[in-house]
Amino acid sequence: MTLKRILFLLFVIAITMKYGKGQKPNNSSAEIPLLDNQNLPLVAQFDTTKLNQVLKIAIKKTIEETMNEMIPRIKQAVLADIGYEPGREKEIPAFTASLTRTRNLGGYEVVIFDKIWLNTGGAYDNDTGVFTAPKTGLYSISTTVMSYHAKYLHCFLWKNNERMVLAFGNDLSTGTLNVVMALKMNDKVFVKLTGFTEYIFGEHRSTFSGYLISE
């Protein structure tokens, strides 16, 4: 090992120990205690100005390279998490869902149309049965509900906390409604039973649809 390398290693160790003790660094020079061949104390003084500049450049470059590598990964992970597909941001929000099986629903229970056929923009949630308007505008909303054999069925269309129009069926008949609604961004639309426990026919005979007409 050359003398220059030994001195450099000693310099790094000294700087590390000095900074590790909470001492403020001297930006221009550093003194390192050394011993000569006779074990007599010596002092080596180094100019750290250029070294600080080199370290700053190296650190900045490392940070930039790390960020340039991580930002695309983070962006891709976020877009995947929210279900975004590049190139589809200009598509019209639209959805169609149906009920797969006949259900006995309790009073004021939201009808969850669990089979999604179309869900541009992902605004309809088939876990809750709720459509959340992704944009402010005029929307066409429709639903068809089919009653069970010898049973009544009353379903209201709701906008947030406002009960709107009614779809009614009796003994395997269907109730259908089609409305145009002015929705603000994040308004919620869903189908909910009245206060009675009733059956709703599944097998894709009951449906819920909507799409943006204009902004």
Automatic annotation (TrEMBL):
Gene3D superfamilies: 2.60.120.40. Residues 88-215 form the C1q domain. It is found in: Secreted. PROSITE patterns: C1Q. Keywords: Secreted, Signal. It holds the Pfam family C1q. The keyword Oxidoreductase does not apply. Residues 1-22 form the signal peptide. InterPro entries: C1q_dom, Collagen/C1q_domain, Tumour_necrosis_fac-like_dom. It comes from the Eukaryota. GO terms for cellular component: collagen trimer. This is Putative C1q domain containing protein MgC1q43. The gene is MgC1q43.
